[in-house]
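Technical note accompanying the year-one report. For the benefit of new consortium partners, we illustrate the data format agreed upon in the data management plan: each record pairs a sequence with a structure-token string. No post-processing was applied to the example shown here.
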Amino acid sequence: MIWTHKIAWDPKKAQESYIRRTAGVARFAHNRAFSAGPKQHEAGGGRSHP
């Protein structure tokens, strides 16, 4: 038997704005780090941490 729960996703305006900003910052940081990898590798650099 499989049990499931349905949860309503209904944030208020201020919460929705905060969630969108947070997701946008995380996406920006991920994309920036992802694009820096090949450039750093081509320049002869290794990992940025030991």
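Partners are asked to follow this layout when depositing records. The CA atoms of residues 38 and 44 lie 10 Å apart.
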